[in-house]
């Protein structure tokens, strides 16, 4: 099986399986769950696949990647070198890509954008792939801008919120907005949004509204999505929480 990506870069992670996948054009080893592969723009490769597997592909256009490199590391984008990687361990990149896969499955655009920026940052910062040092951001957002972003999130809890939208409000790039929000608020934009949605859900669970309706009103993609997140954070399902609030 041949692979060619002439119009962008590909960062891939094997989520499950991979032991039956082998690159045959000069690479003898096979993959494994958690194995990282990176194919730079213009790279070609040949693969032998004998078993089923699941993986996540992150496709990034060259100009987008170079802009991110400049904004994150304050270096001339002409110095950017995209590594070619076939089956390697990079835990920080793996964590971000697994988060990306979860975000896509849940239809969570903000988390997907955050995971993408984090994966790219950790890839270039990894000692095997350049070891670039992040620039230090001081001061964070101004109080006025911080409040403006928080007010926007609060007013749109029931709607999809993207990192790009927040960045446009702030007049910053998505990469800078994510880091400055973290510096100013102590959590990422997605973590802030998730907290506010859970607070909203808890308040509405004290009413008679159906749980599916509450999930929609709080911006979750589905009732099952809200139930999964609610249990992860609180330790109980929305139904159990509702019973406790009502004293049932």
UniProtKB/TrEMBL annotation:
Residues 147-244 form the HTH araC/xylS-type domain. InterPro entries: AraC_XylS_family_regulators, Homeodomain-like_sf, HTH_AraC, Tscrpt_reg_AraC-type_HTH. Keywords: DNA-binding, Transcription, Transcription regulation. The keyword Cell membrane does not apply. GO terms for molecular function: DNA-binding transcription factor activity; sequence-specific DNA binding. SMART domains: HTH_ARAC. This is AraC family transcriptional regulator. It comes from Rhizobium oryziradicis. The lineage of its organism: Bacteria, Pseudomonadati, Pseudomonadota, Alphaproteobacteria, Hyphomicrobiales.
